[in-house]
Amino acid sequence: MDKDLLGRYLMSRRRLLQGAALGSGAALTGLGGRFAHAAPATPLSFIGWQFQPQIVEENVNTFKSLYDENVNYELVTGDYHPVVETKLTGGQRIDMLYAEEDHIARWCTAEWTRDLEGLDGVDEMKAGMFPVSVKSMSLPNGKLGGLPYYAGHNAFIYNEEHLQKAGLAVPDSWDSLLDACRKLKKDGVSDAPYNSAWGQKWPELSWSIFSCWYAEGAPVFDEKSDFVDDAALRKVLETHQALYKEQLVAADIMTLPNEGVPSYATGRHTFMVLHDYDQKVANDPKLSKAAGKVKNALMPGKTKSTFAWTAVYMMGAQPTDVERTWNLLRFFGGKSKDGQYHVIKRWALEFGLGSAYKEVMADPEVVASFGKWRDLAVTNKQLELATSRDIAKQIWFPEWDLFMMQRVQEYIRGSMSTDQIVDELGKKVAELKQQYQ
């Protein structure tokens, strides 16, 4: 395995650089030389995060050519969502921007972005998407808040060779996972059998532990957006603490770079909860010592659900021109006027990013590509069981989410009891609801 190659690959895959400091955007304007003669004088503004910006530039150029358009593409460096909020608060006009599911309602509530209801073709587009994605992208009032950039979920993977050496079956519960990890370590197959993203950034411990909570059947929040302390939630917390206490995870699991994927690619670990598309990395012989041995299974737990999300392209509240901006959103987040999924299909084939559109996921090229590195029957079953995080539609959720990750890390290290952590998490919800009320 070429460690430098893996590092460069993963760094380019991440929407946010791990550990990057808060920074400002660097504008990339007038991409590709002269605009077409018919291009409008006023450019559309589009800002995005740090995932393959050179390909985004190419996609912008394709749009400009097809539509005789003028677009300024701005690449945001640093922690994307806080930087964008600073720009929006300062009054910067943005026509199209990326957002994760936990910022869709927040930005619409702040009147920085708008919903897409009533725009040409919206109903037909929604009808062609998976229901879990439509739900993820919708506002609390049911209106569509954006078009899909990609659709993902957290998957459970295992090293088949490790299990064979230890004579183990794939665990289907948290108790059997703990027992398997203990045996793998005792037998010398793996010194740190379990791996996951336990850092404090939004796609790390937040996504991984919500996936585990949903897999065990914990609602986490009820229909009134109140925190739910139940046996399933406690089970997952206590499993995380046991994995750490018994040294069944790497000692530095909370600071592993790139969400722990490079560590798994060393072949050291047996199990991992990770973003589904990262299984492509784990099975790439150029990037992983475990290539060819990594299989996916349903999440351990009583319900075997997981957390599924859909990242979006959103429209600014006051676009330069609604029709022009809608063309830009549909080109990136749907079909172009020539009937092709120029952007979405490229992300799927080159990087394994899933799509909210049933048509894309059934495309023969996409099916053949995905089938090379994961079991699609298992993936499809996992998606059927997946849960969208409705609580993310509350504008206070990102603040609670960061607090949760910080305190759960401390709990995992053993600094407090289960009673104490669930009490703190519930009190923080009540505090934030009162504050925002």
In short:
By secondary structure, the protein is α/β, with parallel strands linked by helices. It has helices at residues 3-13, 53-67, 80-89, 104-109, 122-127, 131-137, 160-166, 174-186, 202-216, 231-245, 261-265, 279-282, 322-333, 342-351, 358-361, 364-370, 376-385, 397-412, 418-436; strands spanning 25-28, 44-48, 71-76, 96-99, 113-114, 147-159, 194-196, 271-275, 294-297, 307-316, 387-388.
* Percentage of residues in strands: 5-15%
> Regarding quaternary structure, how should these chains be classified?
single chain
Structural class: alpha/beta
- pLDDT below 50 for ≥5 consecutive residues: which ranges? 1-37
**Number of helical segments with 4 or more residues:** 19
Keywords:
single chain, 437 residues, alpha/beta, 11-stranded mixed beta sheet, 13% strand
Question: Could you explain the architecture of this structure?
Answer:
The protein has 437 residues and is of the alpha/beta class. The protein has 19 helices and eleven strands. Strands 1, 2, 3, 4, 5, 6, 7, 8, 9, 10 and 11 form an eleven-stranded mixed sheet that branches. Helix 2 links the parallel strand 2 and strand 3. Helix 9 packs across helix 10 and helix 18 packs antiparallel against helix 19. The chain is globular, with a radius of gyration of 22 Å. The N and C termini lie far apart (53 Å). The N terminus is likely disordered.
